[in-house]
Amino acid sequence: MLHELHRRLPHEAVLYVADLAWFPYGPRRLSEVRRRALEIVERFIELDTKLVVIACNSATAAALNAARERFDIPIVGVISPGAQAAVELTANGRVAVWSTEATLTSGEYVHAIKEANPGVAVLGVAAPELVDIVESGDADSIRAEQALSPLVEGALSWGADTLVLGCTHYPLLTRALRRVVGARALNVVDSAATTAARVERILSVNRLRAERGSAAVELMVTASPDRFLDSARRLFGDDLSSPGLMTLPPAGLAIAR
Fold it and tell me: Which residues are catalytic?
């Protein structure tokens, strides 16, 4: 997500907060995730941000609507952009969605896809083990292929021609996924790109987009800054700065004024 925002919005200052104190959100109750996410968005409001991205599918499912009702700034989730992209891509009207338990339980992907096109059928599958694979650095490995294989077979045997990667960890499995899918036809939707495109449109329409200056990126965590930096560098290969420690906040992205 951070990479996509940088690519589309090179002049925007971004605050990225990783809520390692509460990670992972997927196995938690939706009410817990909602309360935590609202605390996070409120902190972003206090920091005078102009737009918030809830860059987590579970948190989007639990808290997006409540956050929009409570706060006046634009707040963007990752579910609706991915759902819209899937509806536009599917040729046979059958879309599979892999997600965490919390996102699956919420039913938000089904609602978003049906809102975009009521005629599209949706197969929701919880795949929490994929998060562990990514976090351990095995995203491009035999272990990843072995975990992905039954998921892919299940989606294809059901008749899906489009797959939504409904967790922000899952796109990091793209190389292994391509090997498992092989020559078979399966569109894959990564919500990071579609969400960044929506953020760009919202900032432009509301005349909030920064057109000059260098983009500053501030990294913060709610716990374990060393673990975050080690994982982030292993996953993304970027020369990232050391994160600061925030004492009560979120998992997400905020674009600063």
Answer: 56, 167
